[in-house]
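Quick look at the format.
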Amino acid sequence: RLLIEEVALADFELQNANDNSSRLKYSQQGLRASFQCQETIHIIDQHRTSSDPDDYNDIFAQEAQRL
């Protein structure tokens, strides 16, 4: 739920950032962070069923580096 609120706030800030470049930059950073958080949760859900913990750790490390 917190993630949804953060995205909504970042979207609101983005809409009000037409004349404020620092606010625009902050909003873009917030949206990017929220996207990375969602991606990380998806990766965890996708790979946590693996029976080999080393496989899980390697995949997670690779995906975290990609983000």
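Next, a different chain entirely:
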Amino acid sequence: MNSCGTLFTYPALDHGASQIRIIRLQPRCENESITCHLYVSDLEDEDCKYEALSYEWGEATSNQHISLDGKDIGIRENLWWALRHLRAENVERIIWIDALCIDQNNEMEKNHQVSLMGRIYSRASRVVAWLGRE
């Protein structure tokens, strides 16, 4: 995943375990920018609590931007609208989102994470289905 001017570096995962990355979606703020932070958790950990987002990726162009761990990251418009809508008023929201939590440029990681997807969705406290803006 590219940011404007720099390459985003994902926190490492232990592929021998059931580790995943999870997003901390920061609350709405006046400037309307979307801010997220990634952290690593293990599906076997009872404290691993999150929602999962199910959505259509949409057009392949990355024409919207968010701040992910302090870096400006390009994302698809459909995900940007989902994040904008899902932000809570005063608390962060903990969400697993495939496009952001999986390093899409790392085939080995993608394959491993895809093999965990059934568990990722079943372990989620709630699965949010984003059907689009309309």
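Residues 19-130 form one domain.

See the schema section for token definitions.
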